[in-house]
Amino acid sequence: MTSTRTFIAAGSIAVMAATSAPSAHAREPFTDDVASRTQALALLETLNADLLSHPSATLTLERWCSDHALAGDAKILARQVKGQDKPLPADDRQTLAIGPDEPVKYRRVQLACGDHVLSEADNWYVPSRLTPEMNQILDTTDQPFGKVVQPLHFRRQTISADLLWSPLPKGWEMAAPLPPATKGPLAIPHELLRHRAVLFTEANQPFSLVVETYTAEVLAFGRR
User: Fold this and answer.
1) Does pTM surpass 0.85?
2) Which of 15, 97, 168, 194 sits at 20 to 30 Å (Cα–Cα) from 48?
3) Does the residue 224 lie in any domain?
4) Does the residue 36 lie in any domain?
């Protein structure tokens, strides 16, 4: 696992990806060679930077879906995973600045664009810090959390951002051995990035803790 602090920010990688990749509408699957691995790494860095620089992961994924033609209608739907509950860890009550008896709700969702599940998220939130209307929408619909709470003018503070898979080995820029190329598609694991963040109201009051895991579907260009 590699912390976001060690993400490679080499401009030459991004340029190579931008100039050598075909358009998003006709992109072939990533192949198992150095050029394709470099493009995949540049794209992961781009997505990570975009997520870190915007308060709403939902809106960021919606732009990503549109820019890369992942669906005809680039809208993010939060599919709730019913029947699951995860208690908020005791240490995280301090993170949310709440006492031991303050009610906390848990929401497990998959953020999907078309047929692509781009993110799987655990969300613990403090209902007393939302409006009654927001709580009703969250309880009764699949609307994404970020869109529902937009009227709070919230900001996002990232606690950690981890690259769970790197297409290139550690030290590749220092001439570490590269994987041998094959004729097949590049094997991409299901989980690629994981962010842990706290959302704050405009009055700087924490109201939500989210753990978001971004999947290989963020790189499924041209597959609808």
Assistant:
1) no
2) 97
3) no
4) yes
